[in-house]
Specification:
- The structure is a single chain.
- The chain is mostly helical.
- It has one domain.
- Helices cover 69% and strands 0% of the residues.
- The chain has helices at residues 2-21, 28-45.
- Helix 1 (2-21) runs antiparallel to helix 2.
- The chain starts with a helix and ends in a 10-residue tail after the last helix.
């Protein structure tokens, strides 16, 4: 379980780093959309383990 979450977190960080590296080619709005999307995907994959999820 833990190794799976670490793997997903590594993938999340990888995409975030790629977007940061390509930020000069993208708009800040695009980056924010991707950033929020990755956070939602990670929360979904982790099964809501993160305390961020609250409705």
């Amino acid at each position: 379980m833990v190794s799976s979450q670490v793997c997903h977190l590594a993938i999340l960080l990888f995409f975030m780093i790629v977007n940061l590296w390509n930020l000069k080619h993208c708009s800040m709005m695009n980056f924010l959309v991707y950033f929020i999307g990755y956070i939602q995907i990670y929360v979904h994959i982790s099964g809501g383990v993160l305390p961020i999820r609250r409705s």
